Amino acid sequence: MLDSLKEYPETDCFSSILSDFNMDIIYYKFIKIPNDFYVKKNSLTCCFYYVLEGHINIFTKQQTINMSKGDAVILPRPIEHILSTKDSIAKIDTLKTPNFLDLVNDTHQTKARVISFGEETKTILLCGAFTFKMSTCQILMDIIPNFLQVKSNQSEKTKWLNIGFDFFLTEITSDNNFGHQLIINRIFDLFFLNMLRAYFTEYHLDSNVWLNGFKDPYIAKTLFVIHRTPSRKWTVELLAQEIGLSRSALSAKFSAMLGQGVMEYISSYRISLAASALKNSNISIGLLAEKVGFSSEFVFSRSFKRKMGCLPSKYRQTSYN
């Protein structure tokens, strides 16, 4: 194994961007499913699924996702969907489909981590719900599909799936509860990030202009330094000096690959950072404006309202509510 190790990779700006993503697990449950099963999941949270035994189908308004043993799916947006062992949604009375949590409550299994919906189990499924603690790179969120799927037989690159799941099982069956929730969150962070990597690098990297920016060393380095030090008093000229391009060349290349200007991107990223801080801290708006790189509270508030539709104070109040 050690013989196959290569030199350290060059600056990985994608890691600096993906570091903004952290999952907060709301719940996870193992469910035992009989044949002829169907249940509705609401659109309030993001969801994940991993099939231990058998098969299951996920039906949304737009698509059908087929899952077999060892497959994993993440729905990174709150989308209403139906889980079923049936092979077609046409065979399901969607108007009479029970809600998942209602069904759990009705069977008095709310606190159970293993739930059985019938005596003859055909499918065992790990399912759960989560939210993102932070999603500061909105442009990346915009291009993530409505579901990420990894099939157990796709390639050697997905072997982390089984390793990660074994780690998860070890943690939830351990008697040591010290840091339990944090460890669970971090395990699912790894699941999500690896599924993102598989999606971007193996399948769809060439299909998106923004992602193609990571192939260009100048744009990759530009994104890296912006995300590393967003509060620095950046100008296009200063960034160009930092990465070794002329001001005009950087502007043209950045706009062509990302579809927006350099300073527009920096402003959007700073506002995303600020929005997250407004949700998760009590920092004063004036100090926050300075920390994320705006020249004054007035400039920050004006820019924030232009992008988010309300003033920072209103955004914080709405988030608390």
TrEMBL record:
**HTH araC/xylS-type domain span:** 220-318
**InterPro entries linked:** AraC_lig, Homeodomain-like_sf, HTH_AraC, RmlC-like_jellyroll, RmlC_Cupin_sf
Instruction: Give yes or no: UniProt keyword Transcription regulation.
Output: yes
Give the superkingdom in one word.
Bacteria
One Pfam annotation reads Cupin_6
Question: Mind telling me which Gene3D superfamilies this protein's record contains?
Answer: Homeodomain-like (1.10.10.60), Jelly Rolls (2.60.120.10)
Keyword Transcription regulation in the entry? The reply is: yes
GO MF: DNA-binding transcription factor activity; sequence-specific DNA binding
Q: Which residues form a coiled coil?
A: none
Arranged from A to Z, the UniProt key words for this protein are: DNA-binding, Transcription, Transcription regulation
Cross-referenced PANTHER family, in alphabetical order? ARAC-FAMILY TRANSCRIPTIONAL REGULATOR (PTHR43280), RCS-SPECIFIC HTH-TYPE TRANSCRIPTIONAL ACTIVATOR RCLR (PTHR43280:SF11)
Q: What is this protein called?
A: AraC family transcriptional regulator
